[in-house]
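Researcher: I've got a protein sequence and the SMILES for flavin-adenine dinucleotide. Could you write out the 3D structure of the bound complex as structure tokens? I'd like something to compare against our soaking experiments later this week.
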Amino acid sequence: MAEFDVDLFVIGGGSGGVRAARIAAGHGARVMVAEEYRMGGTCVIRGCVPKKLLVLGSHVRHEIADAAGFGWTIASANFDWPTLIANKDREIARLEAAYTVNVEKSGARIVKSRAVFENAHRLRLGTGETVSAKHVLIATGGAPNHGRMIPGIEHVISSNEAFHLPELPRRIVIQGGGYIALEFACIFAGFGSDVTVVYRGDNILRGFDDDVRAHLRSAMEKQGITILTGCTVEKVDRHGNEYTSHLSNGSSIASEKVMFAIGRHPNVANLGLEKADVAINPNNGGIAVNEYSQTSVPNIYAIGDVTHRVNLTPVAIREGHAFADTVFGKRDIKVDHADIPTAVFSQPEVGTVGLTEAQARARSSHVDIYKTSLRPMKATLSGRDTRVVMNLVVDGLSDCVVGCHIVGDDAAEIIQAVAIAVKMKATKADFDATIALHPTAAEELVTMRTPAARHLRQAAE
Ligand SMILES: Cc1cc2nc3c(=O)[nH]c(=O)nc-3n(C[C@H](O)[C@H](O)[C@H](O)COP(=O)(O)OP(=O)(O)OC[C@H]3O[C@@H](n4cnc5c(N)ncnc54)[C@H](O)[C@@H]3O)c2cc1C
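Model: Sure. Here is the predicted complex with flavin-adenine dinucleotide in place.
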């Protein structure tokens, strides 16, 4: 008889857990996956996928507005939020079913239940039944974090609820300056809501390149989104179906919804981690792991958002795959977290990879910045007041392009391809040697010849 019920017990059927389960099963492991909510996890059920569907929906408003310059007359355009939400929910249900089938096809078994540790090798399910496992993978993801317990916090929604609102709010206050807050601000504004963003920092998108931050802010403001920085929501009052947000600057805003997107915390609570002796990383509150995603307990691993390293779906998937290959496929694989491309699906979109100007200057004594700002061709006929901004950050010592930052249509699509070049350590000379593809906005990436700024630092004496 086998010593353990399964070779691998995965807690969480999200992006990372599902990939790890399928790959481990493919290597011949006996795998069980516990999922307490819906297969597919945050990305599929209440993250990237439904978010992008709403982004695409809200973008139609811009397409309709732009059409006149191209000769189109669109007599009337009406938007119905419940139709979009129902269609989105149907697609999410289809994806959830596909995730379930794919895991089962791989030979792994799914249990629809919460799972918690009894000890390092034993898990307890919601039914009270226990399962013993040789290895355990914690892939429990993260959840919205509302921050301080301000008065009226119970009236505040997160992105989870925003996906299921029965009606489109005519006015909404969104607290947060990160990508989720800004994406929802643009989604609601696109559908015609009056949106106010409240953010405690001095500018939105902390950690992004300063040119990106400045340009996106002004582009969002031009669309009518109000962005209040340097203040916070201190209290929320309810009056029937209306809310008043009281801000730290003394002002107040009336709205039909108040949403917070001010951060997410790793799902580590009530997992029984103490019974298994799994350590938490004191710096970020996630599960502490080494470069193989192994926790403080040798047979227990953790991947994805629960480790609070880089909270993105493709990262969770890569970590899950690397874990399964290393532990069950006899291949020694570490995940390289450098130069991960990322996007903000705001309107306009942001795509970015590598170092910001400030980060590059902190690392190198010679940094060249190439910049362009252009009116996209479409805007010449549509009349839309918009510009595309692109920056290349070049390490002047090696000539390597160490960062690229784009704001404009299709920035996410463009940056995925640029990320290959950055990852391969392409030089500015390699970019220059590439012939432009005309007429595109992206051709600017290979035609910027003169640095807009050169930062030289004297070696320390
Ligand atoms: C609004 C929003 C938009 C996003 N947009 C993007 C984007 O555009 N691009 C991108 O790359 N990333 C995006 N993300 C981030 C992305 O969704 C996450 O990084 C990714 O889902 C992490 O995968 P994971 O496997 O670590 O965890 P998750 O996908 O969160 O999966 C964890 C699963 O574990 C389950 N679970 C938790 N505890 C237990 C337990 N004890 N027992 C059983 N099951 C349990 C949960 O129900 C969940 O299904 C977005 C996130 C949000 C919230």
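Model: The longest helix spans residues 81-106. DSSP finds 13 helices and 22 strands in the chain.
Researcher: Great, I'll pass this along to the crystallography team.
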